[in-house]
Design a protein that fits this description.
The chain has 363 residues and is α+β, with helices and mostly antiparallel strands. The chain has two domains: 136 residues, Jelly Rolls; 132 residues, Jelly Rolls (Sandwich). Helix content is 15%, strand content 36%. The protein contains five helices and 24 strands. The strands form four sheets. A seven-stranded antiparallel β-sheet has the order 1-21-18-23-16-15-14. The radius of gyration is 22 Å and the shape is globular. The N terminus is likely disordered.
Length: 363
């Protein structure tokens, strides 16, 4: 598939710019419709980078090949005490701990996590300068890392390296490392305090009031969402453990939603229609997903993407094992708070999972 640039095409001779723009959008639709849905772990090599050891499922290098471009999905495997240290201007990342236990030192603050916990690196006013440490010597720790570029681009996001991982033996390229002016001085500019009591006098003051509330919210928000604190629910789709949900009012970032979906042995999820763009990482188990009538078989550490296409996607997951559960780590952009629940196709439950039906019968 021809690689597409994220800009309007140059107009061909005899074609005006409007027509060229129409062709660009048609080609983008074709890319999403024909792009890869299933990314098999066995086909993705582990690699050592200047930041650490891991595998990359999707990023800017293969957005022209997948059905949900914009996602950055990777998986770390940390044997040594420390990974490299780097800094993100902006932020906006989720890191789910798949094994072991560790610590992230972010802007000098310790964030401790263990298997089943979700670490949030939110959008901050300056940067997130951080390093990950393995706190269980002799045993590996690893995280699923999720980023969504359209949100990151909106915050002028950029990543630079600070120090290299212990096992990195490659060249040190100066242009990849943090310069002294990485965060411009204007980022620290502050105006006079605007304290608003009662109703604001203008809609602009309403915005400043929202800012004040947001800053107060962020000063108390959770950067680590612990598995033990998140109850499971049985809903129409299956057994969920929510970590980030639009209704949660205490997490440090809600631009990406996140939950764990467990499918009991021999069972299946409900069947749902939505716009697409959801990521499913197989934590454990074997099964398959039916997406718009096509079957995709998956196993541990595979990634299943749901296409972003006209009319949305109809999706249902099946556990092929009669004795072992399947668990999927799921994430999607929280477009709902921006564009509404129906998006451009509707949000519908078409069938319900057996566990939900059994629960309804008992009541």
């Amino acid at each position: 598939m021809e690689r597409l640039k994220e800009r309007d095409r140059e107009a061909e001779p005899g074609m005006d710019q409007y027509d060229a723009n129409l062709l660009f959008k048609i080609e983008k639709s074709r890319q999403r419709e024909q792009g890869k849905v299933l990314l098999r772990a066995q086909e993705i090599p582990w690699r050592q980078s200047r930041h650490g050891y891991g595998r990359r499922y999707c990023d800017s290098g293969n957005w022209d090949q997948i059905c949900a471009p914009g996602w950055c999905v990777s998986r770390t495997n940390q044997q040594k005490m420390a990974r490299g240290r780097h800094t993100h201007r902006g932020g906006g990342r989720l890191l789910f701990c798949l094994e072991g236990k560790g610590r992230t030192v972010n802007n000098g603050v310790n964030l401790d996590w263990e298997k089943g916990d979700l670490e949030i690196l939110p959008v901050t006013r300056t940067e997130n300068s951080h390093q990950h440490f393995n706190m269980d010597e002799g045993n590996p720790c690893g995280q699923l890392v999720l980023m969504f570029w359209p949100f990151m681009e909106a915050t002028a996001n950029e990543t630079r390296q600070v120090t290299d991982a212990p096992d990195w033996k490659g060249d040190k390229k100066p242009e990849l490392y943090r310069p002294g002016d990485f965060v411009p001085d204007r980022a620290f500019l502050e105006g006079s305090p605007i304290i608003i009591e009662g109703n604001p006098d203008s809609l602009l003051d309403e915005m400043f009031l929202r800012r004040n509330r947001w800053r107060d919210y962020m000063s108390k928000a959770r950067w680590i969402v612990r598995e033990k604190d998140q109850k499971t629910e049985t809903n129409r789709m299956g057994i969920y453990r929510w970590y980030v949900h639009p209704s949660f009012d205490d997490v440090a970032m809600k631009s990406l939603l996140f939950w764990i979906h467990e499918i009991p042995p021999g069972s299946h999820s409900g069947r749902q229609k939505f716009q697409g763009g959801r990521v499913h990482f197989v934590i454990e188990g074997h099964g398959y997903s039916m997406i718009n009538g096509v079957r995709y078989d998956w196993g541990p550490e595979d990634v299943v993407l749901s296409p972003v296409i006209a009319g949305g996607v109809v999706i249902q997951h099946f556990n092929s094992s009669p004795s072992q559960p399947a668990r999927l780590a799921c994430s999607e952009p929280n477009w709902y708070d921006i564009m509404g629940m129906d998006m451009a196709c509707g949000f519908e439950q078409l069938d319900e999972c057996p566990e939900w039906q059994a629960g309804r019968q008992k009541t």
